[in-house]
Every structure is written in structure tokens, then in C-alpha cells.
Give the backbone structure.
Amino acid sequence: MKIILAPMDGITDFYVRQILTSVGGYDLSMTEFLRVTNSVFPKRVFYQNCPEINPEINSNLELLSFTQSGTPVHMQLLGSDADYLAANAAKAVELGVKGIDVNFGCPAKTVNGHGGGAVLLQDPEILYKLVSTIRKDLPSETPLSAKMRLGYETSDLLLDNAKAIEEAGADFITIHARTKFDGYRPPAKWHEVTDLFAKINIPIVLNGEIWDVNDYLKCQQISSCQDIMLGRGAFARPDLAKQIKTYLNHQPYQTMSWDSICVLLKDFYQFMVMQNLISEKYIAGRLKLWIKWLMASYDEAVFLFEQIKRISDAKEIGVKLQCHG
Ligand SMILES: Cc1cc2nc3c(=O)[nH]c(=O)nc-3n(C[C@H](O)[C@H](O)[C@H](O)COP(=O)(O)O)c2cc1C
């Protein structure tokens, strides 16, 4: 089975991808979405979105588009103009990106208002057009995937949308098991995907509300999925992918201690501080969000969050991290 680290805008950036894939268990990671409108981006934009392809940052040319621990990184594009999506996808691949994912799941009003993301799930023909146009301009060996929700308002078009993506030449589909109208409200409706496995001939990766090994087992039992994508759960339990893999392989595994989690947080803090352009407030916000997600699984995170929740100076939070672990 395969586990993918989810694309999360403003969250799963280069540093997070490096840190979480270094813990292990991930077969693939994705960039945050790059929004395509009516231009082909210059090289620097691709490098910003996916520093793993920038030879000045990733000096191991054999491993362009891989994290340091060897997990491939695919680039996610979002938009509704087939030709510009295709041209940007082709350029990304020329620059070294190992695979392209197309976003049909974003529920944000601004994105949907410009015809991108989940709003496209109302028309399978458009999905077909976008994916097939991108496919035509990519080398045949380059993986192309799409990430979708169950639907826009309802899941009535789930099969039609998935079929359209398959017939357009995608190599796999990730399904976030909620409609756009569901937003992020639990539960994820894993059962709605069950029938799809018999009807779609490319791998389906299931996503949504997998926070621990039991959730994976439940999701697997209900939907019969094998492959999954982890979003917020990857932050609540940074070794979740590893926990699931070792469980399935009947290997003994000691879940990460709070001390090891603190080392990750410190690495994350240091990574961000080294980028002089990132503001203190931004760094503080990113640390707080991660610590908040950790509260789901570590009591120590609850204690730490209480101490830092009103601090907006990243250095002060950094000092608190030094005391933990
Ligand atoms: C803050 C945030 C940003 C996200 N950004 C993206 C994105 O850029 N592209 C995308 O396809 N999905 C995005 N998502 C959706 C996640 O990839 C994932 O589908 C969702 O969080 C459900 O999975 P989870 O329950 O494991 O978190 C985002 C979700 C969150 C919470």
C-alpha cells in the first residue's frame, strides 16, 4: 500500500516535506497548489513552489524532485485553462518535476470564483478536457494524477468525474471523501467511495480524517481502499505513515516520543529562521498551528500550547521549545 503526504496550501511547504518524509513511511509528497491563470510561469516560480527541483538547493541532481530522504515530490497545479495548465505542467517537468497533480478539490471561494478547484466537479467533460490536454503535453512516463472531492453539492457525479479523469489518461486519483459543501466537517464519507473501486481501473487513493492506525483500518474496512493520503493526521502524529506501515507489516514499533517530536519542531523552527525573509509573526503562527494539531495526540502539546498561545514572537516560542525535550 502507498501513503501520500497531502498537499496543504501554506502548510506542506519544502521544510515540512523534508521533515515529515524524513520520519518515514511516505511514498510520495505533493507541493502546495500552484495556481495557473493565463501565463506560463518563469522558472523561479516553479523553484519557489518546489525547491526540490532547484539545483542550487538540491545539489544531488540524481534526486531532483525528491526530498532529502528520497521521497518523490509531485507538483500540484490548480486552474481551469487547459492550455495554460498543460504548458505549465510541461515546463515543470522540463525543470525536473517528477509528476503532476491537478487540484479539483479546493473549496475556497476565491479559487472557485475563478473557475478552479472543486467547482469543476460539476462538469465531468471539463475534467476530461483539462486532464487530457495536460496528458498530451507530458512525457508518457510522467505520472499525472488528480485530487478531487466526492462532488460539489452532492456526490451524484462521483463516478462520472472519476471516469472522466481515468479516460483522460490520469495514472491515479485521490479522493477527499467529502463534497465541497461538506467543507472540512467530519466525518469523512469513506463509504461513498466503496463502489468506485470495482468501476475505476486506475488506483484510487482515499483521503480524509485518518488520524491514527485505527482510522486507517476502519477506512480500509469500509471502503476497501489500500492507498491513502494523510493531511492533518500527519501533523498530529508525525510518524503516522510509519505507524501504519509497521502495523501492516507486523513489525514492532515504538511510537515517537514527545522528545523526538520536539526535535522535529526545533528543526522546523530553525529551517524557518534561516530564511531571513520570513517574519517572526509568520513563524510563530506556523509553530502554533502544528503544536495545536499535536494536541490531538500528545498531552505535552496541550501544556506547551497553553504556554505559547499568546506569544507572537517566534524567538520566544523557540526558547520554549528548547526547554521541551
Ligand atoms: C490548511 C489546508 C490547506 C490545504 N491545501 C490544499 C492544497 O493546496 N491542495 C489540495 O489538493 N488540498 C488541500 N487541502 C486539503 C488536504 O489535502 C486534504 O484533502 C484535507 O485536509 C483532508 O485530509 P485530512 O483529513 O487528512 O486532513 C488543504 C487542507 C488544509 C486543512
Observations:
- Strands lie at 3-5, 28-30, 34-35, 73-78, 100-104, 144-151, 172-179, 204-207, 228-230.
